[in-house]
Write a structure and sequence with these properties.
By secondary structure, this protein is mostly helical. The chain has a domain of 144 residues: MetI-like fold (Orthogonal Bundle). The protein has 13 helices and no strands. Helix 3 crosses helix 12 and helix 10 runs antiparallel to helix 12. It is elongated. The N terminus is likely disordered. It is found in: Cell membrane. It is a multi-pass membrane protein. This is ABC transporter permease. Belongs to the binding-protein-dependent transport system permease family. Keywords: Cell membrane, Membrane, Peptide transport, Protein transport, Transmembrane, Transmembrane helix, Transport.
């Protein structure tokens, strides 16, 4: 057999399963809290997408006697209008989860753009943009969201707009701090000496190193957005009856205080989503922080 140097020097390609396994171990998905968080969030997403195909009751239709306690026919009982509480709780994921995701996507997009420009350009641009963010951050988030939602009127769309106004300055501040830190690194100076244009310098050499804390904070804010949106619905500024939104369902349970099962389902759903988002955010923070991995 002839000797082939190219064949002897060729490195074997790693199998896809081995690469995925190393990635899973690196991210720490085997930790119990992370597995729990992923299972809860994935289950809620699947339920939100598929529930119209298999649910036995209509979320706004009559399902049984009014104020019926939990039973084999209705696992979480019925509310004051005879609607199944469990079905309405599961349908609530179709409203609460999209609100949280849409609010965070828009708020992160605005905040990242504003923070990156402020940190990169500096000077008067930085002062104007950051003073605008400071004005928003000067108000308590709950009170500011209540004021904006009350001025716009009740409804899910107005609730989302109020939450976007509350959340974008947080990411603007965070992105600006990251850009200021990355600007001091040596590879940025080398790119400037090499004649890289400012726009490409920001997008290609600075911003890719700034996303880690943004993603961690975004993950942990999912529960906070859902909780605040539910709070607005609870006081009548968010979703309106008969929408099966979690905060609005808790408000219905408050009006029937002794029928504890009405608020149990949506309350547990908000608790599980908030807890899962915090677990997942902690795991992402540990992965992105070398000190956390040590």
């Amino acid at each position: 057999m002839l000797f082939s140097p190219a064949r002897t020097l060729e490195r074997p390609r790693p199998r896809l399963s081995a690469s995925v396994g190393r990635f899973v171990r690196h991210l720490g998905w085997r930790q119990a809290p992370v597995i729990f968080a992923v299972a809860v969030l994935v289950s809620l997403v699947v339920i939100a997408v598929t529930i119209p195909w298999w649910t036995p009751y209509d979320p706004i239709g009559l399902a049984g006697r009014r104020l019926q306690p939990p039973s084999a026919a209705h696992w979480l009982g019925t509310d004051a209008l005879g609607r199944d509480v469990l079905v309405r709780t599961l349908y609530g994921a179709r409203y609460s989860l999209p609100i949280a995701v849409s609010v965070l996507i828009v708020a992160v997009g605005i905040g990242v753009a504003v923070g990156a420009l402020a940190g990169f350009l500096g000077g008067i641009v930085d002062n104007v943009l950051m003073r605008l963010a400071d004005i928003t951050l000067a108000f308590p988030p709950v009170l500011l969201a209540m004021a904006i939602a009350a001025s716009l009127g009740p409804g899910l769309v107005n609730t989302a707009l109020a939450l976007i106004i509350v959340w974008w300055p947080i990411y603007a501040r965070l992105m600006r701090a990251q850009v200021l830190n990355v600007k001091k690194l040596d590879h940025v100076d080398a790119a400037i000496v090499g004649g890289v244009k400012p726009g490409r310098l920001l997008v290609k050499h600075i911003m890719p190193l700034c996303w880690s804390p943004i993603l961690v904070n975004m993950t942990m804010d999912v529960g906070q957005v859902i909780l605040l949106a539910a709070g607005l619905s609870f006081i009548g500024l968010g979703a309106q009856p008969p929408t099966p939104e979690w905060g609005q369902m808790i408000a219905e349970g408050a009006s029937n205080f002794y029928c504890w099962w009405i608020a149990l389902g949506p309350g547990m759903a908000i608790f599980l989503v908030s807890l899962s988002s915090n677990f997942l955010g902690d795991a992402l923070r540990d992965v992105s922080d070398p000190r956390g991995r040590q």
